[in-house]
Amino acid sequence: MAREFKRTDRVAAQIQRELAELVRVTLDSRKTGMITIQAVDVVRDFSHAKVYFTFLGGELDQHGVTRALKQAAPGLRHELGQRIRMRTVPELHFVHDESIERGSRLSALIEQAVKSDHPDRDEHND
Hints:
3 strands; cytoplasm; ribosomal small subunit binding; RbfA_dom_sf; Ribosome-bd_factorA_CS; about 130 residues; 4 helices; GMP Synthetase, Chain A, domain 3; ribosome biogenesis
């Protein structure tokens, strides 16, 4: 009988939880804004983890936040090693997750298309 979850999935979920807490307490939220760890993908040998994040607010743009996370990665990896009992703690690679912004743009385009199809329709009388 196959297991419901692979070990890599369980490790990725634990890394996601721990990193979310570490990022919250480690990084300066005035500069980076509120960072959310959306997902973590871990390779089978646990040597690398791709960390998908989004952010809201802050002084820095997307590239600035990505740069700040990449600079903090060795320290975050060390702290992660203190919290998670693993033989190998993966090297962290941070990637900005654009799926939320893409979804918002698509939703706005759909709303705009629906309104242009029915210009005389009142929004409140759907």
